[in-house]
């Protein structure tokens, strides 16, 4: 008996039915050998036998089968095993596993019944299994159900689970626990929902609503664009399922981002927008909210409401969205992050983001990848997003999918981030309901992203005036013969005796009657009370940019903040260069050394935190600062741990969030914009590593930051710090493209500033949060000025000063002797100042314009009036003439100057590139700029 037991212990695990169990165990071993039993650890170690560290799963199954065969002689005597039976069992185990891996490729999930590809390794014959084996009992391993089943039944179950209306991709996920959870959910339910009659009737009602609103709009507003959902109506019961079950999951808010396809349907049938308001928009009768000077088309507008659910009310928001499709993704994530931070720690499961994509856009837009890549990072994680791809199978117009992507599925990009994907047939709303439940449970369990590929079609063209059959004749022959999802499901319920044809028609008639009566047709929408956090924005609407506030602080506060910022944990060792910087800051706080940029900027953050305000700063290398000036985040040289001193000033202070970002511009800037639109009491800052890096986020700047208010009435206090200045570093790292921001300026939409002293950045950052005014702030920040001997301030400048939109002449030059006045912004000021002092010129004054927009006309006029004998006004800039500020602000000079004053430009000539790449040539150009400004073009000096 002992011999039998020993043999069993040594060999039973080798039985082929345990192959998947062994694979899971092997995965754990690869991740952490100590996580498995010592006996298994020894076995796996021996299996490698000098091979590469990791062997793929199919060979390991074969290896175990081989080991089983070696001992089969003794096992046969004891248990009746044969070499053939072990081979057959191993083959069945591999077949089961391949259905999990590749079953989605032959799933019946395309409503247009496109041909299903042949996948040889999903056929029993591929593994040497024949018809003679179909009725043989095999161990099912971890396949849910009976332990042993005939091969015929095993195949039937595999096809039901993995090849029906849902095709599941999850075996690529590295995390074994996540993979096992999905497998158990799919196989334990056979990938089918257990719906009550009431739930089926609810789905039918949602489908009827989705179809009826489109039909009503189509016949009532003939020829008008609406980007209908027709063909993808199952999106409505999907979203309804998420919202209604969300209350039971303790979700308090859901934020949805989507492009225009199906947007009007979602607004009316999910969020409860009154149809009469929508109809007025179609008629052109709707009045825009004050502040929305341009407004936007109806299928870009956002909306929010409180929706009643069995688990309590949920505030559902549909974000405003431009036509740039997927650019809304990071904006929604940023808004969700701000809401989660507002709720406090561990609030991932309080706010749920849902992003709805188009198939071509999901695979084609780079910002999708950026957003997916952000999902697991400290700065940008929102605890998982439910992604829904409305897969029309035809791209944005009528292109062939082969021209839209290089991947098999439009969702393949999700595999990069270890995200499960469920490809579901849009004509099977019960399968869609099952996937909705699965997706929500997965997200709430693991706080990870999940993607639903809703395979459907587009009944009409890209817009309602388009004729898609011109380029897709065969597809649209099918579509025009194809019953709608509502019709298919209604017939199913009629066959189940849950409704009659008359009841089906009556439901549609009742819905249309409610539309015509101007009644809300969605789930119950709660009272129209003001959303609690919307009230935070009220004081910022209609505020004037001239609104003032006190930005100076006492000397005691500055010294307290610096002292607390110098307190480090026991055993925390600074890098010698950082230690020297911290020592210098002590001297600055004591008044023994002039203040530099890093000190003033850090004090701006610290003093705001001490006033119980929050600060969020992200970007590439912001913790220390690209140019080694900030060092807000310190790194222990002993163990690599980080410490954020300004988060340890006081027990009741605000919170600082300072994170180095991933290498992204569009995604990260979009995220920070979204955050800023939701958190008016937080100073939200994005810093570009170099100012020109913002070029990669131009869509966010154009379609959100500069125009969000005039289109949608959305305010934002976002700050963009853009290092700018000509240092001889070539075309790519000189200019933040100041001219682009100034070109976008109108209606006091944004602020554009070029501070040149530490005190200026101190007051500018504090002003941004303290005054009752929320407009985006674009700051051209310096590089070399961070340590320039002249670019310094005193403690008094912080304790008594304020931000100056214009800085007057600082040298003791007599105004009545001035005949030449140079206006400038940024670093070139110090070049001009040093050259003037060197040449002892006393008839030239230099004035800095520190705020270029809104332009400080009154202060500018005051400066002009100070010089009664002025003959020449010079605008001097480092940038080429066609770039920089010259063409965007010279009208202010023309409008103010007396006719006898000569207005001139001093700067580089127009250029296609921002700067030269040769350092010697850069110095020559810079000298010429200074000489032209000081002496004029023809002096030869």
UniProtKB/TrEMBL annotation:
Record keywords, A-Z: Glycolysis, Oxidoreductase, Thiamine pyrophosphate
Coiled-coil ranges from the UniProt annotation: none
Catalytic activity annotation: N(6)-[(R)-lipoyl]-L-lysyl-[protein] + 2-oxoglutarate + H(+) = N(6)-[(R)-S(8)-succinyldihydrolipoyl]-L-lysyl-[protein] + CO2
Keyword Oxidoreductase: yes
Cellular component per GO, a single term: cytosol
GO biological process, alphabetically ordered: glycolytic process; tricarboxylic acid cycle
Residue ranges occupied by any Transketolase-like pyrimidine-binding domain in the UniProt entry: 595-788
Family: Belongs to the alpha-ketoglutarate dehydrogenase family.
UniProt protein name: 2-oxoglutarate dehydrogenase E1 component
Organism the protein comes from: Methylotuvimicrobium alcaliphilum (strain DSM 19304 / NCIMB 14124 / VKM B-2133 / 20Z) (Methylomicrobium alcaliphilum)
